[in-house]
Amino acid sequence: MNNTGNALFSHHIFIFPFKWDFLPAGKTVLEVPFSERASMKKVTAALAGLPWEPSPFKIQLDDADQYHTFNEYNYFHGYVRDALALTLNEQETTRRFRYLLPSGEEKPAYEISIGKGKDNPPIQYKLIIRDILLTCYDIGVGFLAFFLENRETGAPEDILRINDFGRRIYPQFLGYAPKPEEQGENKEEEGTTEEVSPLDAPKASFLADTISLTGISKEPIKESFSYYKVAASLNGEPFRLPEHISYLLGPKFAVATRETKQTLPRPSILLSPLIDDRMYVLCYYFAAPELSATLRRFDQEKGNYSYAASDFWYSYLFVDPSLDPSCRSRPMMEKLLKRHTYDRWIEYQDPGERYQIQLYGISRYSFMMLVDRSTFTEKFLINHHRYLYFQAMALALTQRAAILRFAAEAANISEEIKTGKDIARQKRAIREVYRGYLYFTNKVYFREITPQEQGIELYDMAREIMEIDPDLHALQQEIEELHNYALLMEGEKSSQEAALLTRVATVFLPPTLVIGVFGFSNPPKHDFTQNLICAIVASLILIALVFLVIWLLNLRRRRL
Fold it and tell me: Which of these ranges, 84-98, 232-246, 508-522, has the smallest mean pLDDT?
């Protein structure tokens, strides 16, 4: 479906969540305190000289965006705004940056090319880049978000391909995929010499041939995933940031794959993806009237809407690349669609009694909206998707990322505890992680973020599907166990020092008795010289013992 009127068919947001650590040259993660690794100043310094600008929040009366800044500020509870960088004062703990897009005639674009075989031209999608945001938290997590507009096609199969192929950042697996003409035939007998690539299988399933950013630099910034063809490189680093993300973040951001051992020759921000090979997807899709009518059809006998049995709705919600869904069990599909679909407004009618469907779907990797085209959905509701629902889902995703971040910190500390070395460093690491965890639970983790009823329901649904509360409970137990271990070490240290002082007091007992025997408690007046010599000797003994005690205590403190 070609767009002759330049109308918007769909709006897509790809979110790349990650954890980050500032690592000085020659240092490993375990050698640098958590507060230093998660210092927000290091991120700001790493972005210096690049076309990123701080994006502090301010309320603007912007008719083009339907006054979204005012709406954002009032939509969320006051105690949530700090975490979302929606306060009128600059935040030290949450920083948001905006990429400065060129303003030339050529609009910056996010281009997806999907290969269709040797003799077939690739499928091309060109999405206009509306915005690129980077948000970082001083607990060592953050996300990069692409805001994209599709004004070229509204066909359901195209929307599915854009969402799935566009979100991939590396191949989920490697392998050879036989071509259709080779099925059931012996390739060797035909004498085929065509090169076999380990990217054949993923590119035949869900991996784009290339993802490019155009209109940002003189040449397209293209990722073809060719890095994964070479075994030698994979043996060194099995993951690499895709070029379209690496270019934006700049050379001071590196990839961490061996967290407890890796050192770098220069100070860097180490990134680790916190989901897998996929970015999180938010999509706002203007469906054709016949599609929305099919999804809202109600079966009186079964008591179900037809979306519960829709192949398209399943593929759209769970981000499958085609109309052939990945679930082949009808009862399971129905169960999943009922659980992951929010259908409060599925039969909404405008004052003219025309149906205006609003259908929402949430999974671990997606927040999807499907609407009928109207003035309301084109001018107002889409801004809820771009700003309010994006903020809510990004916050839930950040909470999930932070839980994974602190779980990794706890695992690293536990690994070091097993070595039995440098107990002082272990205790310091536990204290800093515990402090960061307390900040997270009080300033980033929220059970409710808005007084709006629909916002409450969607946020609760997202948190339930992401299993944030059970995972946080498990993390709490891990962190408390580490904290209790640190308290135990402190208790043992105090007991050892008390025992040492007891032994020192025992050492002081003999000279005390000597002094008593020589009569220093009641010295004879006629033998002054003898008493003076004894006093000097006793004083020297006591001074030596004092220095011995001090040396022993310092030695014990260094060992602990």
Answer: 508-522
With a cut of 80, say whether residue 221 has pLDDT above it.
yes
Distance CA 381, CA 348 (A): 14
Judged against a pLDDT cut of 90, whether residue 14 lies above it is answered with yes
What is the Cα–Cα distance from 54 to 58, expressed in whole angstroms? 12
Contacts of 122 (CB under 8 A, 6+ apart): 113, 114, 115, 116, 209
The C-alpha atoms of residue 68 and residue 10 are separated, in whole angstroms, by 19
- DSSP 8-state symbol, 371: E
Separate counts of helices (H) and strands (E) for the chain: 19, 16
395 Cβ neighbours under 8 A, 6+ residues apart = 80, 83, 84, 444, 446, 449
Q: At what angle do helices 453-465 and 468-517 cross, to 10 degrees?
A: 70
Distance CA 431, CA 365 (A): 33
Q: Which of 110, 326, 327 is nearest to 210 (CA)?
A: 110
| Per-residue pLDDT tens digits for 32-63 | 889 899 999 999 999 999 999 998 888 888 77
Report how far residue 247's alpha carbon sits from residue 376's, in angstroms, rounded to the nearest whole number. 38
Q: Give the per-residue pLDDT at 505.
A: 60
pLDDT of residue 188: 43
Max CA separation in the chain (angstroms): 123
Cβ-based neighbours of 144, under 8 Å, separated by 6 or more: 15, 16, 18, 132, 133, 134, 245, 248, 249
How far is Cα 519 from Cα 172, in angstroms, rounded to an integer?
Answer: 87
Task: Give tens-digit pLDDT for 460-474.
Answer: 999 999 999 999 999
Specify whether the CB–CB gap between 361 and 350 falls below 8 A.
Answer: no
329-376 tens-digit pLDDT: 999 999 999 999 999 999 888 777 677 899 999 999 999 999 999 989
Scan for tokens 């897998």, then name that residue: 276
